[in-house]
């Protein structure tokens, strides 16, 4: 079997499903387990740190691990960096068959830090019988030194190992999500997958196939021209995207409009321009085709009747938040705190005279469906829980398309990116 530690809502599992394989996921979070169950994924709800290793010995072909990253991520307090020496000590001890986790945990500033050492406990037990055949692990970039420690141990055990930082956008994910990756194998030379995309499209050459341009949010979401106004919604909501307190007279949310068929995004385009209409008509999203706007063309001109706007995605509420236009990939999506809410915001195109400026549309918070698609989950993935619980799962998940690129060589399977149908 394939064992998936800290399986979350099923990023690795979805990738395996597309590749014709299945895993057994160990996961503690109730709502991630419910999402996995709704998606038909095999799951044991348990604490990875206390679950025994013996049930897997003699039965495990591949091991996957994506330990929780909150203690290490730049989005959090990063106390995992303070605990780093303790985590390295735990890995060294477990690799030698000594379990010192209880003593080391008492000294950790963040109780989650030591979870990054748990894969070594399983690897040590499996190595006694020559397992697993391959290993794939993923974490935030700051964990790279720890992955290098794992690599040194695995090489002593006969594995070929590659560690490094990869950008998910280079593999067709509409998000510039950089992650520390470890790939190891007993039967093949470990190497990163060949990138399929780049920031600027590259043509085929004598040295190999070319690369497509990074996938934009508009392409992934299938957004294009629409004949219906976009309703205005108020900003706000609970932590991680909780209940939205709409004031009187502003009850209609964008998500409700979509569900009721009042707003239908269509074919994607390079430019998304919002034009104010007559009073009371709302805002209409209009898309100019890429071919109709040659490179180097001047920016749209402003008339006395309209100010033009383009949608962009703001990654959080902080002053230094990443803001990406709709014709670009998203920045790294992360949730779990009110300050990490992602919102669609309107940015002006050009600079009209001051007396002709129009107020921008209200920010619109991203939906779980949209965030899931930007993580390359299918649009109908059955996320469970309230908004905050869904967003937390999505932000912590491995993008399935990225995971499939990492796993395909180990499974000796050809990956067809077309199998990842994102929009419904």
UniProtKB/TrEMBL annotation:
<keyword id="KW-0949">S-adenosyl-L-methionine</keyword>
<keyword id="KW-0680">Restriction system</keyword>
<keyword id="KW-0808">Transferase</keyword>
<dbReference type="GO" id="GO:0032259">
    <property type="term" value="P:methylation"/>
</dbReference>
<dbReference type="InterPro" id="IPR029063">
    <property type="entry name" value="SAM-dependent_MTases_sf"/>
</dbReference>
<protein>
    <recommendedName>
        <fullName>DNA (cytosine-5-)-methyltransferase</fullName>
        <ecNumber>2.1.1.37</ecNumber>
    </recommendedName>
</protein>
<feature type="compositionally biased region" description="Polar residues">
    <location>
        <begin position="290"/>
        <end position="303"/>
    </location>
</feature>
<feature type="active site">
    <location>
        <position position="69"/>
    </location>
</feature>
<keyword id="KW-0489">Methyltransferase</keyword>
<feature type="region of interest" description="Disordered">
    <location>
        <begin position="282"/>
        <end position="303"/>
    </location>
</feature>
<dbReference type="Pfam" id="PF00145">
    <property type="entry name" value="DNA_methylase"/>
</dbReference>
<comment type="similarity">
    <text>Belongs to the class I-like SAM-binding methyltransferase superfamily. C5-methyltransferase family.</text>
</comment>
<dbReference type="InterPro" id="IPR001525">
    <property type="entry name" value="C5_MeTfrase"/>
</dbReference>
<dbReference type="GO" id="GO:0003886">
    <property type="term" value="F:DNA (cytosine-5-)-methyltransferase activity"/>
</dbReference>
<dbReference type="GO" id="GO:0009307">
    <property type="term" value="P:DNA restriction-modification system"/>
</dbReference>
<dbReference type="InterPro" id="IPR050390">
    <property type="entry name" value="C5-Methyltransferase"/>
</dbReference>
């Amino acid at each position: 079997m394939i064992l998936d530690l800290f399986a979350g809502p099923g990023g690795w599992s979805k990738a395996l499903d597309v590749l014709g394989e299945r895993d057994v996921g160990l996961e503690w979070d109730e709502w991630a387990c419910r999402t996995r169950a709704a998606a038909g994924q095999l799951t044991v709800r348990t604490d990875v740190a206390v679950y025994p290793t013996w049930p897997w010995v003699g039965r495990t072909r591949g091991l996957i691990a994506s330990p929780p990253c909150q203690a290490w991520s730049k989005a959090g307090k990063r106390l995992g960096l303070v605990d780093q020496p303790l985590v390295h000590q735990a890995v060294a001890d477990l690799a030698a068959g000594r379990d010192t986790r209880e003593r080391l945990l008492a000294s950790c500033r963040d109780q989650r830090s030591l979870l990054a050492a748990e894969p070594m406990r399983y690897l040590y037990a499996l190595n006694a019988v020559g397992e697993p055949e391959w290993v794939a692990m993923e974490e935030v970039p700051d964990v790279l030194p720890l992955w290098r420690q794992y690599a040194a141990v695995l090489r002593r055990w006969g594995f070929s190992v590659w560690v490094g930082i990869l950008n998910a956008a280079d593999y067709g994910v509409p998000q510039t999500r950089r992650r520390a990756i470890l790939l190891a194998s007993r039967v093949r030379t470990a190497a990163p997958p060949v990138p399929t995309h780049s920031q600027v499209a590259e043509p085929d050459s004598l040295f190999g196939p070319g690369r497509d341009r990074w996938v934009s949010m508009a392409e992934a979401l299938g957004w294009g021209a629409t004949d219906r106004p976009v309703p205005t919604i108020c900003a706000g909501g609970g932590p991680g995207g909780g209940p939205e307190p709409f004031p009187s007279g502003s009850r209609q949310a964008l998500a409700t409009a979509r569900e009721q068929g009042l707003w239908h995004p269509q074919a994607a385009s390079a430019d998304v321009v919002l034009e104010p209409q007559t009073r009371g008509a709302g805002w209409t999203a209009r898309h100019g085709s890429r071919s109709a706007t040659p490179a180097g063309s001047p920016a749209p001109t402003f008339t006395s009747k309209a100010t033009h706007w383009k949608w962009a995605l703001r990654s959080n509420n902080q002053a230094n938040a990443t803001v990406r236009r709709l014709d670009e990939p998203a920045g790294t999506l992360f949730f779990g705190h009110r300050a990490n809410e992602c919102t669609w915001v309107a940015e002006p195109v050009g600079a009209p005279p001051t007396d002709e400026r129009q107020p921008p549309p209200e920010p619109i918070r991203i939906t779980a469906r949209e965030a899931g698609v930007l993580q390359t989950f299918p649009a109908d993935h059955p996320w469970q829980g309230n908004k905050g619980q869904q967003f937390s799962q999505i932000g912590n998940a491995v993008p399935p398309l990225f995971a499939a690129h990492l796993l395909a060589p180990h499974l000796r399977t050809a990956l067809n990116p077309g199998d990842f149908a994102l929009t419904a």
